[in-house]
């Protein structure tokens, strides 16, 4: 019997599917606990947002599994993109801490402002009481070291490329870009349902070919990463045993969470 090795293969897929089911079930149990959870006080500011993103990852992974089981293929890719983005956002927020909440609020306010301005230009009638409002009061005063840090990490939050670069060698950004190709209107989303024939004509497909195993396998990796962020913040670290078992069974490194690169190493190498 061939030795197991983590990769884009049937054995890894089988393990990933089983592990994802266990992680989602245990996460659901924690989230539905009637007595709530006790949280590390040092993480009290950022925990609610992290919890919300963690639940979004788990619920989206559940939706992905449902669609895959129903025979859907490239249609599931936007869900994988959302899972990846929210996982890295959790890693980012856990790193920057409470300062990241001001960034999330600031970014959300900016997006709301742009939306309302777009609606007004299009002459949409806004419901009573809907307005842009003031910029969040949590934003640091301009010209201060806190404002400089706010602007830097806001650039990371607003750009997956910058976020990925801050935590490594931007090795996940190409994956994110590829997922975007199947999220936005593109040749890829069209060609999935077309099959060029030898005579130059094109056959129309009812469904796109399956994109392979990577989406399902990497979703499980993201579930593990998200769990490694949230579980230690909850009293008793309830997912620790399951997460460590998942890492061993899947055959992936223990140091699964990207770490912020030291300042001296952050500059990208010249491409010239």
TrEMBL record:
A Pfam family annotated for this UniProt entry: DUF5677
Name listed for the protein in its UniProt record: DUF5677 domain-containing protein
Domain of life of the native organism: Bacteria
Organism equals Actinomadura chokoriensis
InterPro entries referenced in this protein's UniProt entry, alphabetically: DUF5677
């Amino acid at each position: 019997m061939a030795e197991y090795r983590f990769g884009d293969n049937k054995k890894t897929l089988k393990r990933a599917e089983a592990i994802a089911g266990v992680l989602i079930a245990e996460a659901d149990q924690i989230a539905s606990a009637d007595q709530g959870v006790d949280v590390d006080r040092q993480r009290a500011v950022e925990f609610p947002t992290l919890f919300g993103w963690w639940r979004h990852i788990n619920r989206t992974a559940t939706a992905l599994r449902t669609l895959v089981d129903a025979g859907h293929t490239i249609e599931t890719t936007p869900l994988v993109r959302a899972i990846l983005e929210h996982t890295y956002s959790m890693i980012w927020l856990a790193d920057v801490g409470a300062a990241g909440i001001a960034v999330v609020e600031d970014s959300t306010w900016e997006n709301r402002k742009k939306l309302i301005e777009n609606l007004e230009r299009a002459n949409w009638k806004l419901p009573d009481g809907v307005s842009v409002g003031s910029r969040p009061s949590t934003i640091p005063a301009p010209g201060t070291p806190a404002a400089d840090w706010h602007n830097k990490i806001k650039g990371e939050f607003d750009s997956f490329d910058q976020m990925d670069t801050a935590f490594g060698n931007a090795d996940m950004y190409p994956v994110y870009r590829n997922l975007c190709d199947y999220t936005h209107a593109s040749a890829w989303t069209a060609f999935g349902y077309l099959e060029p024939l030898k005579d130059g004509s094109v056959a129309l497909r009812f469904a796109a070919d399956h994109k392979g195993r990577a989406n399902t396998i990497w979703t499980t990796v993201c579930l593990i990463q998200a769990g490694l962020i949230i579980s230690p913040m909850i009293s008793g670290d309830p997912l620790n045993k399951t997460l460590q078992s998942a890492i061993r069974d899947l055959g992936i490194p223990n140091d699964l969470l990207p770490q912020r690169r030291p300042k001296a190493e952050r500059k990208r190498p010249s491409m010239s």
